[in-house]
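Support request, please re-run this one:
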Amino acid sequence: MTIHLVQDSALSRTRWTLKDTVWMLGIYGATVGAGTLFLPVEIGTRGPLVLFMLLVLAFPLSMVPHVLICRVFMRDHTTADKSLPMFGTFFGARGQQAIRAYFCLAHFPVTLVYAISLVNALDNLFTVHFHFAQVNRALLTFIVLTCLFLVLSKGREKVVNILSALALPFALTIVAIAAIQIPGWHLTNITDALKATNNAPAGETIKNLWLTLPLITFAFCSTPMISPLAAHYREKGNGGEEKSVRVVRLAYGLIFFSIIFFVLSCVLSTPQETFVSAKAQNLNVLSVMDGNSGSGIVFFVAPLIAVLGMTKSFLGISLPVAETFTDLTVSLTGAGKTKSQLIAFIPMFAVSFAVVYANPDVINLIETVCGPLIAIFLFLIPAYLIYTRDELHNLRGMATITVILGGLLTVSALIYSMF
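Re-run finished. Output below.
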């Protein structure tokens, strides 16, 4: 009888369930969004060498650190409640508060990028595609942010379910748009750009490659979703560390395929002038597609998909940021959960409104703020813990060394951009 119970328990931990699929799609939904849709713009303006670097580095710089940080989170046992694991075991009480504050600092700018991109995509959709009169930006920003924060207030389960529901249609549409463009592929888009790169100064080429590292880190990042995922899989009967790692690996297989195929198709089918125009207007690639290379329907569908992608990515990243900010508010003020959430949401909303209305260059924001700050949290802090905490010693090895190198290169891009 005991043997059968142990076997049944083991099966329940390893059997793939609908909830595992929901979490896998939730990670996908939080990852494939604004960063993905800006990658073709950046590659199209900076040259094909950046594309080759993406093909070589994207998978090891995305899947490996996310698996590693998932394992570290799964071994953070200070949170016995539903709050998110955030290295608490390894830093102590004060250190835990500092890490939570840094988590918000590093990832809140990411939500700003998604919010800016969403409002810009909607504005472009209304005026260029639907030929409406110019919408007041302040009013549009207020309406969009109000709707997003209302969804966030519904809680973790509701947001994850929404992300999962949006993820599959978005994934299929992204792949479909990439496939529709295949008849319009032109290898000359790459060969001509390579010739231009050969004539460019070596220093400029190196700088372009270096500055793309933060964008790659940003485009493939789902760190905020790993924390609530770890909180779920640490609960009894949900599968534990190995199941959580399996979910992350499968999610990143889907993420890598979708992003690479989409970026490659956009670069091969879209003239460089279109990317230059998109960058000048602070727009993503879907908002400027004309559909001539494939089907006219792309002109109408692509901007709608861009709006969908920005929305789900904003929710996916904002969820753990809002939860962490709320937890910090509870610990600092002693207020209840509901009141603390309101206190946390007010400054988040106010700052978001001000920045989105100002409409700064999102790619510059990614390269100089989001990418390096995320790299410190995703690459360097877990690697530091692994080599300084005995309970994590079995995670040391080539994977951790890869993470350290990736983190140092990405953070150094911020310094390099200053010269």
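DSSP finds 17 helices and no strands in the chain. The two ends are 69 Å apart (CA to CA).
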